[in-house]
Design goal:
TIM Barrel; globular
């Protein structure tokens, strides 16, 4: 870059020590090196941010967070973890911001926790991981969360989690032993999270809450590439000419987390516009230096590059 731009990374994970004791199914990809970094919110993380030229990480809890727990336990653990995360941000507000962990097994409590963390702790929104006890987020039981996010004017980041057991059995079981990441970054995460996004549009939640903003990582989980075809399919079902595409481009933002590809990025820019794309690394599952090295050389003009590395994040998250 010709001059130093502030670099804000939006999908950067950690594990709360108390939540970690209560959950199974944590993504162990990367082994001890990743585990050490998930536990660190201090010197090691800051040193690796500095080495890669990352100024700010928006911290979020790793999957599946509290979403598979009993409602009462999920509420208690999420609140305590968010308080601890707020202390980390208060100690280094120049380097960290935060997305809340939400106890989605109790949707009303999750909406209240979103408001508490935004209004009282200064959080920038929340991250939600996959299904909640087998339910997709478009289920109307979760709509209080969307209503509150729209009212607060903060985004919800939809992060992947391991697919439903029935899906694993039907689609992936033949290859899981030899290729375990087929359930995660190699394919399962993409299908699961893209399906969440499609279902949200079909559900009518954006008609109910027109100000609702959703973030998808990994360059939109493939949806920008498929926008034209998905939209064409729904037109055959009687939808308006650009109904799906317009809804996606109006309500969704995407990040570069773990997806440092020039052709894929340019596709997203052409489909959605550069104002909807934000830089992320997916630390510590992905190392910082490849992300910042890539974004320095993407074939975009300086103005568009500046929007991706921090300008869009400052606008969306009011930073």
């Amino acid at each position: 870059m010709p001059e130093k731009l502030q670099v804000i990374a939006l999908e950067e994970h950690y594990l709360d020590p108390e939540i970690k004791q209560h959950i199974t199914g944590l993504d162990r990809t990367g082994g001890p090196k990743v585990a050490e970094r998930l536990d660190d919110l201090g010197a090691l993380r800051l040193a690796e941010m500095d080495a890669a030229g990352i100024d700010v990480q928006v911290l979020s809890h790793g999957a599946p967070s509290v979403q598979k727990l009993a409602p009462e336990l999920a509420v208690r653990l999420a609140r305590a973890a968010n308080d601890r995360l707020a202390e980390t941000v208060r100690a280094r507000p120049d380097r960290f911001a935060a997305f809340a962990a939400l106890p989605t097994p109790d949707p009303k409590a999750a909406a209240d926790e979103l408001e508490r963390t935004v209004a009282r702790l200064g959080f920038k929104g929340a991250m939600v991981h996959g299904l909640t006890h087998g339910l997709f987020l478009d289920d109307r039981r979760f709509w209080p969360i969307f209503e509150r996010a729209a009212a607060l004017d903060v985004p919800l980041y939809l992060h992947p989690a391991v697919p439903h057991p029935a899906v694993i059995d039907a689609y992936y079981k033949d290859y899981v032993e030899q290729y375990p990441t087929i359930l995660r970054a190699a394919w399962g995460f993409t299908v699961e999270t893209a399906t969440q996004g499609i279902r949200l549009i079909l559900s009518g939640v954006f008609d109910a809450y027109p100000g609702l903003k959703i973030i998808l990582g990994h360059l939109g989980e493939g949806l920008p590439f498929y926008l034209w075809r998905i939209n064409m399919g729904f037109v055959r079902d009687g939808a308006g000419a650009n109904w799906f595409r317009d809804a996606f481009c109006e309500h969704f933002y995407i990040t570069t987390s773990g997806f440092f590809s020039d052709p894929a990025l340019l596709c997203c820019v052409m489909e959605m516009g550069v104002d909807r794309i934000l830089f992320s690394v997916d630390y510590p599952f992905v190392e910082n230096p490849p992300g910042t090295a890539w974004v320095e050389r993407v074939p975009l003009c300086a103005e568009d590059r500046a929007k991706i590395v921090s300008g869009n994040a400052r606008r969306l998250l009011k930073m």
